[in-house]
Sequence to fold (239 residues):
Amino acid sequence: MISYHVFSGKSLVYKLSDENIVEETLDRLFLDLNLCYFCLGSITDGILPDCLHQACRQCIYQVIENDASCPHCKADLFLTECTVISTSDPLIKPIESPFGHSYIQENTVGLASYHFDPLDPYISYENAPDDWLLDNNQKPPEKVKFRDWSYNPITRKFRGNIVWTEATFDGDALWKYEFVFSRNFNKIESGRVTSYNAENEISQVTRFRNKPRQMVHDGLVYTLNQFPLILKANDKKLQ
Ligand SMILES: [Zn+2]
Ligand SMILES: [Zn+2]
Fold:
């Protein structure tokens, strides 16, 4: 029998007789004391993410900027799935199209991130590692535009081609993208990239994976770039 004594204005005693109820008891303790699962401090401006691990607004923003997964349960964190505890309102407006947004891997902008400029969607290589080189040993351009692209708002499917004109990239001359956004536009939920060599033969097919980043060992995981949304939300709070 273990008992926890917690003093924070009021005092509570929880008796834990079974390891299976530790999590449940912890949850009750966090809720009773209105504690943040991220910083363990008491919450003033509380936000409830989809995984139900309540946190301070600034802690949510900070975690999304660093890693974008809940430090308690490792679930992906999305601003679009957060609720303001005091008002029960969604934290931000729902997203209804990929345009005006970008999608990133490894929570890094410019690491082959996809930018849905409404007129000219492109891939950014601004933060590509030094060993990402074209076959002429040059770095890929910072912006490579999708060609012959299309987007169907009903199916949420995007199609587009990246053509390597200056030099091939790992032997590839063409990458054909075909992928589908999740219903709430938080991530790319399915699809593939088909690569073709200079002889127009398929060299590789890479699939998009719809799983938390930590669980994926192959394929592509792209999630909504939330940095601009945090900036916008912070701006609104200052007004
Ligand atoms: Zn906090
Ligand atoms: Zn969580």
